[in-house]
Amino acid sequence: MNIHTRADAPTGLSAQEEFLNELFDKGVLFDSGVDGLYGRSGAFEDVIKAFDRLVTRHGKHDAATSIHFPPGIARPLFEKSGYMKSFPQLAGTVHSFMGGDADHCTLLAELEAGQDWTGQQQATDIVLTPAACYPLYPTVAKRGPLPPEGRLYDLQSYCFRHEPSKDPARMQMFRMREYVRIGSPEQVRAFRETWLERGQTMMASLGVPLKVDVANDPFFGRAGRMLANNQRDTGLKFELLIPVTSEEKPTACLSFNYHQDHFGSLWNIPTADGGVAHTACVGFGMERVALALFKHHGCETAQWPEAVRQVLWP
Ligand code: ATP
Ligand code: ZN
Ligand code: MG
């Protein structure tokens, strides 16, 4: 989509804000008043559904077990996952009112007075899922040792990350599809290699410019910087990047993560031969892929290049 410059456009808007405004103007996304929280048009959802089927077609020979988790994870599992050590800035917890009549009166009075009323709420047993694969590891651990061939899962979940932004590609609530491989180091590394290739072939078929680069997660704080450097140096995370609002800083649309035995030892997942399971996941940012397509092919999907339409709607 060409970024149109309207005569009345306020000056000084970032390219991200311009694209976001254009998506609002053209009815692709709907503003909620909160950055990163948007409604989606039917056309946008049709693209997401079509891309979802495309991923399935590329992964179909691997016989994955599909699990649909809700967008919340049990708080005890979240606590054990170590997420608050690494990414406290992104987490979102679900709170609810659990008081009696008097507390309710206080809450209503605070609301009425425009004061902070959320102190009347308490943490529930649910935390918003930060990445589609987080609920999987404790689920797999319950099944005992892996079979010799390991396991492969196909997941999709809405995820929450508290990273409000004017960048339409950085949402607070978005969908992540993931394939997760659990097995020996060789099985898991082979899976990631396969998807690094497949991911590029698949995205190239959608007519978007792309590159793959080494990456790191936004580990929190000073200690986090070391973790991030180590992740890069050891090549544990790669991203497939597509320019959406910037050529210099393209957007991570797919990511390929090798966790080594981190989750296998944390959750106690043994391999068939008594070792510790290794894990890897490939994550597809559903909204990001859709936005990349709207950016490069325009906001009228009926006018997208025929070759691209054939891939999405064969
Ligand atoms: P970034 O570096 O841009 O923050 P990330 O490294 O945090 O991305 P992952 O944690 O690997 O991303 O998440 C898997 C996929 O989910 C990403 O490849 C991306 O496509 C998508 N994703 C991540 N964060 C967001 C977000 N805030 N909004 C929309 N999609 C996202
Ligand atoms: Zn994952
Ligand atoms: Mg991120």
Task: Describe it.
By secondary structure, the protein is of the alpha+beta class. The protein has a single domain, classed as 2-Layer Sandwich (BirA Bifunctional Protein, domain 2), CATH 3.30.930.10. It is 37% helix and 24% strand. The protein is built from 11 helices and 12 strands. The chain has helices at residues 15-25, 42-59, 75-81, 83-86, 101-112, 136-141, 185-204, 221-233, 262-266, 286-297, 306-312; strands at residues 29-31, 38-40, 65-67, 72-74, 93-97, 121-128, 151-160, 173-183, 211-214, 237-242, 251-260, 278-285. Strands 3-7-8-12-11-10-9 form a 7-stranded mixed sheet. A 3-stranded antiparallel sheet has the order 4-6-5. The protein has a two-stranded antiparallel sheet with strand order 1-2. Strand 10 and strand 11 (251-260) form a beta hairpin. Helix 2 (42-59) packs across helix 10 (286-297). Residues 1-9 have low confidence and may be disordered. Residues 131, 161, 163, 169-171, 174, 176, 217, 252-255, 283, 285, 287-288 line the site of adenosine-5'-triphosphate. Adenosine-5'-triphosphate (ATP) binds next to strand 8, strand 11, strand 12 and helix 10.
